[in-house]
Amino acid sequence: MPTLYSIQYLRAFAALAVVLFHAGEKSGLHFTIGAAGVDVFFVVSGFIMMAISDARSASPGKFFKNRLLRIVPIYWAATLLMIAGALAGAFPNLVLSLPHVLGSLLFLPVASPSTGALWPVLVQGWTLNYEIFFYAVFALTLFARPSARLPLLALVFGTLVAIGLVMPPENPSVGFYTAPVILEFVAGAALAKLWQRGAVPPAPIGLALICLSIAGFAAIQIFKLEFDAWSCGPLAIMLVTGALSLEKSRSVPKIPALAYLGDASYSIYIWHTFAVSVAVKILSSASLPPVAATTIAVVAGTLVGVLAYEALERPMQALVRGKRTNLWRLPAKQTERQPVP
Question: pTM value?
Fold first, then answer.
């Protein structure tokens, strides 16, 4: 697949929104709606997985293996750093337990002994628990013919959400898999089918959808409206649909820097909290206004994510896929490709 710059830009903006959310929470500038970057990520993930699987066939085992190779190395590296920091006393509020650590490494929702919430050792990893679950279910749909994959995915996830609404599981870890947020993956997969058929809306409607989506997110932030998958999910779907509409009409310019941030979005998402925490702690003694402190923390978090992308993610991806590296660097020659989240 060729690079879809609209998807690249959405990945970049979603990652930066999450960075802004965490920076704001720590510095006192509460940009709550930034957490909706996760909803955008989930819709984009559903889109890319369906689009790629339809474009090039892969066995269920190979698909799931490739996704694990993509996700696991960087996430485990960051998680192990958190564990080492906790053992060294750098994170006094982080309480470790063997079940929680194992659950974190295996992408299973286990209650944190620190807070009781279903957060892994690396808090933002809760979204990866959903991603891995989606990959596992999607891999099973690859046994079916392409036309049946979306209905099967919708049936499984729709049934789980229905169970959660009608008969909420008493076990929170089981209930984790019945949350309505999983429907965002299905929505993204459905958009991939529309994209393949050339059935996305025309550019004027797409632009209107983008404007409505941004206005909706802004309203949630400004008026402190209900903030969950039922409110942010549809807005994220509108945003991705609108972006694809502009892509179809060739109205999306090529912006290398923004596309690069899209490539680095996974590392930014995983590593930014380390830099944000340190930056806010240092800045708190300087009595800076929250806006200034948040801005500096966002820049620091983004830069650390980019450095991790270059120094860890790219070389590690080369190694796990059996490619040669030169002094921990990929070959200079690059080709355009459809990135994966």
Answer: 0.94
